[in-house]
Amino acid sequence: MVKQLLLASALLVFSAQSFALSRIEASVDKNPVGRDESLILTVVADDEVEASRLDTSPLLRNFLVGRTSISRSTRIVNFSSEKETRWQVLLAPRDSGSFTIPAFSIDGVRSNPIEITVSAESEINRDTQYLYVTSELLSPLVYVGQMALYKIKLYLGLDLQRGEISAPELAGAQIKQLGDDKDGSEIVDGRRFRVIERTYGIIPDTAGELEVKAPVFEGDVLVPSPRNGGMFNFNESRPMRVSGESRTLKVLDKPADWQGPWLVADLVALTEEFPDHIEEFTVGTPITRTLSLVATNVDETSLPALEPQLPPELKNYPEKPERSSYLREGQLVSQLKLTQAIVPMEPGTFEIPALQVAWFNPQLGKRQLAVIAPRTIRVTGPAKAEAAALPPQAAEPQGWQWWPWLAAILGLGWALTAIGWAVTARRWKADARLSPAGNSRAGENERGFMQTASKSNAGNVHQKAALAELKRACDGNDGREMLSAVLGYLSLRQGESVTLESAGRLSLPLAAALSQIQRALYGSDAAQQPDGAALYKAIQMLGAEANASASRELKPLNPG
Q1: In this predicted structure, what is the pLDDT of residue 127?
Q2: Nearest to residue 512, comparing CAs of 403, 411, 410, 382?
C-alpha cells in the first residue's frame, strides 16, 4: 500500500512537471500583407490551457478580429506525454503601414511580438519573399590549402514540388559538400519557414581575394491561385529560380620558409596502437602497429602520407592507408590510418624511431609538430635468414611438376607398410596359439601396443581437430586465420612450438605458400589475395612425406 501511494505521488509530480507551461509561440501565415488581404495568427502553448486565457483584445487597435478556433492535442512518446493548445485567429488590417502584434502572456510565460507590414496595394506578390537563399562564409580568411566552411540555407514559405540547389563556384579551389542536408524550420518576421541547410568545404589552391559565386535554386512550388470568380482558391505549380549573394574569400599564401609537405589545420593529432602488453617478441612473428593522423577542418586528401622508419632487422609490411572524414559539431574531422606488420628478423633489442608530422596552426600563425615518441622492443629466438622471411616465388608450372610423382611413390610406400603390418599381426597370433609363454609375450606386446596406440589416438584426435580448423581457414582465404591455424596444427604435429620461419623450413611448397600469404597481408599489392588452397595442399604433402618416412622405419619389423 505504501509503495502504491509513493508511486501515485511520483506520477503526480511527474505529470505536474511534464505538463507545466513553459513556452508560447506566435506566428502568422503571411508578412507583409495587402490592404485587402487577411492573415491568420497562430498561437501555440505547450500545455493544456483554457481557451479564455488568451487575451486578443490588444489586437483590436490595428486589426479586425474574426473567428477564433481552438484545438488541443496530447502526444505520448516513450511513456512521455506532450500536451499542446493551439489558437488560430483570423485578422484583417484596418489600414496600411507597420503594426505590432503584441506579445501574449499566460502564467508569466510570454510569446514573441511580431512586426507586421501592411502594403497600400490590395494584394502582394510574395513568391520571391517566401522563397529565398542565404549564404555565409564561416571562415572568410584562410590559408592556401585550408578548408573554409561555407553554409547555405534555402527558405521555403511555399510548398515545394521539386527543386535543385547548385553548388557554389570558385575558380582555383576544390569544393565538396560536407555531410547530408539538414531539414528544419525557422520563424522569420513572424512567419514559419521550412529551411533546408547545406554545408560545403572550400579548399583554395591560390592566394588572393576570391569571389565565391552564390548557389542557385531552381524548381517548382505550389502557390494559391483564385479561380471561379474568386470564390475558391486552388494551388497551382509555378517554376521558380532564386540565387543568393556572392561572398569574398581572402586567402593567404603559406610562409616562404616552410619546408616539407604543407598541412594547415585547426588541430592535428598523431596516435599509435601497439601491443604494449607483450614484453618480448619472437623472431618471425608479426607485430601489428596502427598509426592514426587526425586533423580538423582539413580535407582527407590533404593529409600527408605516413612513412615510419625502422631498423633493418625489422621488416615492414604496410597495408593500404585508409582515409576518411566526418562532421562533428560543425567541424570537418579527417583521418588517415596506416596499419603495418613489423616482422623481426634477428634477436636483440631494437628502437622504433620517433615519428613526427609538421603542420601549420593558423590560429597561432606558427609551425607545430605532432609526434609519436620512440619505443624499444626486445626480440628473442634464433636468427631468421632473409630467404626464410619471404622465400622467392618460383614459377608454379615448373616448381610443381615433380610433386605428383613424389605423391605416387609415397602412396605406394604407405601401401607396402600396411601389408607389412598385416603380416606381422598374423605371425603374432600364430605364436600365441603355439606357446603359453608366447601367449604371455604376445599379451605383453599387445598391452604395450594398445597403450602406445591410446596415446597416439589421443594425439591424432587433437591433430585432426587442428587440421579441420586449418581447412576452414583455408576455405575462407582469411590470411591471419590461416597463419594462426597452421602454426597450431604444426606445433601439435611436431610436438614442439613452431614459428613461421621454422615452418618454412619443413618443405619448399609450404615455404612458398606461407610467403604468398605474408605478401598478401603485408605487401604493397592490395589486389593480391591469400591462397588458402596452396597452403592446404602443402600441408597435405607434408602428411604424405610423414607417411613415407614411417614406411621406411617400419620395414625392419617385417620378418624376412
Answers
A1: 58
A2: 403
Which position has the higher pLDDT, 168 or 432? Answer: 168
Specify the CATH number of the domain 267-384: 2.60.40
The backbone torsions φ and ψ at residue 558, rounded to the nearest 5 degrees and listed phi first, read -80, 120
Side chain identity at 97, as an amino acid letter?
Answer: G
Domains 22-118 and 131-252 share a fold: yes
Quick one: cell of 346?
Answer: 634477428
Beta bridge partners of 408: none
On the question of pLDDT at 165 being above 50, the answer is: yes
**Distance, CA of 460 to CA of 484 (rounded, Å):** 19
Cα–Cα distances in angstroms (integers) from residue 518 to residues 310, 317, 490, in the given order: 18, 8, 18
* Mean pLDDT, residues 471-494: 86
Residue 401, classed as helix, strand or coil, is coil
For residues 367 and 364, give the distance between their C-alpha atoms in angstroms, rounded to a whole number: 9
Using left for φ > 0, alpha for ψ between -120 and 50, and beta otherwise, residue 514 falls in alpha
Report the C-alpha gap between 340 and 457 in whole angstroms: 41
Q: How far apart are CA 323 and CA 331, in angstroms?
A: 17
Domain 131-252 carries which CATH code?
2.60.40.10
Residues whose CB is less than 8 angstroms from the CB of residue 190 and which lie 6 or more positions away in sequence, other chains included: 26, 27, 28, 31, 101, 112, 114, 115, 116
Count of CB atoms situated within 10 Å of the CB of 463? 15
Cis amide bond preceding 404, omega within 30: no
In eight-state DSSP terms, residue 213 is: B
Per-residue pLDDT tens over the stretch 430-444 = 444 434 444 444 444
Output the nine-digit C-alpha cell for 379. Answer: 626480440
Percent of the chain with pLDDT over 90: 23
In this structure, what C-alpha cell is assigned to residue 262? Answer: 604543407
Q: How do residues 27-86 score in pLDDT, each as one tens digit?
A: 887 788 877 777 888 899 888 888 888 888 888 888 888 888 888 888 777 767 788 898
Quick count: other Cβ atoms within 10 Å of Cβ 236? 11
Domain boundaries, the chain: 22-118, 131-252, 267-384, 396-557
In degrees, rounded to 5, the angle at the alpha carbon of residue 171 between the alpha carbons of residues 166 and 172 is 125
Q: Which DSSP category does 141 fall into?
A: E
User: What is the pLDDT at residue 558?
Assistant: 43
Q: What is the pLDDT of residues 217-231, one digit of tens each?
A: 888 877 665 554 444
- Burial category of 304 from C-beta neighbours within 10 Å (exposed 0-12, middle 13-18, buried 19 and up): middle
Cα–Cα distance measured from residue 393 to residue 410, given in angstroms and rounded to the nearest whole number: 26
d(CA 458, CA 464): 10
**Average pLDDT of the chain to the nearest whole number:** 77
Give the chain's largest Cα–Cα span.
Answer: 136
Q: What mean pLDDT is predicted for residues 524-531? A: 73
Closest CA to 190 of 33, 47, 35, 59: 33
Q: What SS3 state is found at 489?
A: helix
H or E stretch covering 453:
helix 436-476
Among the four given CATH numbers 2.60.40, 3.30.565, 3.30.70, 3.30.200, the one describing domain 22-118: 2.60.40
